[in-house]
Amino acid sequence: MSDNPTLHRPSVIELLLIFGRIGLTSFGGGLSGWFFREFVQDRKWLTEEEFLNGLALSQALPGVNVTNMAIWIGYRLRGGMGAIAGLAGIVVPSALFIVLLAELFAALTTFQLTHFALQGAAAAAIGLSLSMGLTTARRVRRGILPIAVMIATFAAIAIFHLPLIFVVLIGSPISILLALIEKA
Fold it and tell me: What does the DSSP 8-state code read for residue 110?
């Protein structure tokens, strides 16, 4: 725990509830920001240096960074039982919510309106992806090599349907090499 002896030590149940609340109310990335606010800024159970060390360790270990961080924080504050509380709190409530949501969704698929709503959501997702792609394409330097790499990547995935992992494994070193050549 933090070197500050005046701070109270959280209970395992308290940790479980905090991680459960964060897991249920946070979507997408940025959970480490919530952890920072909760455990460093608001409750002052960890110092900023401790938190950043734990974050670096969590990112270096295999697995999901947020889960690693919850386990690390729980362990740091309450030992083995705290680590279990961190893991259970960040995973179990949201997993139960997903199962309930899946059951609700399965029940709703019998209605035609659900299919129309999903088609609309799919169209919106495609539009957002296209918008992000166009925004990214506008930021590509206007040299022949960067544009050639962009076109080759698009063709490999969209036209030739090559697996993304191969495109990344082959395209990344080529892109890095071309960037180094252009800088030289």
Answer: T
| CA dist 175 → 3, 18, 85, 148 (Å) | 46, 43, 43, 10
Residue with tokens 């309106």: 113
Q: How far apart are CA 123 and CA 95, in angstroms?
A: 27
Rounded Cα distance between 98 and 90, Å, is 13
Distance CA 17, CA 11 (A): 10
- Number of H-type helices and E-type strands within the chain: 7, 0
Q: In this structure, what token pair is assigned to residue 121?
A: 């959501």
HSE-CB of 24 using CA atoms within 13 angstroms = 13
Cα gap 68→10, rounded to integer Å: 19
Alpha helices in the chain (DSSP H): 12-25, 31-35, 48-60, 65-108, 112-139, 144-154, 164-183
Can you tell me the mean pLDDT for 113-125?
90
CB neighbours of residue 162 within 10 Å: 15
Per-residue pLDDT reduced to its tens digit, 9-53: 899 999 999 999 999 988 766 788 899 999 999 999 999 999 999
Plot region of 26 (φ>0 → left; ψ -120 to 50 → alpha; else → beta): beta
Query: In the numeric block, which tokens belong to residue 25?
Result: 């109310």
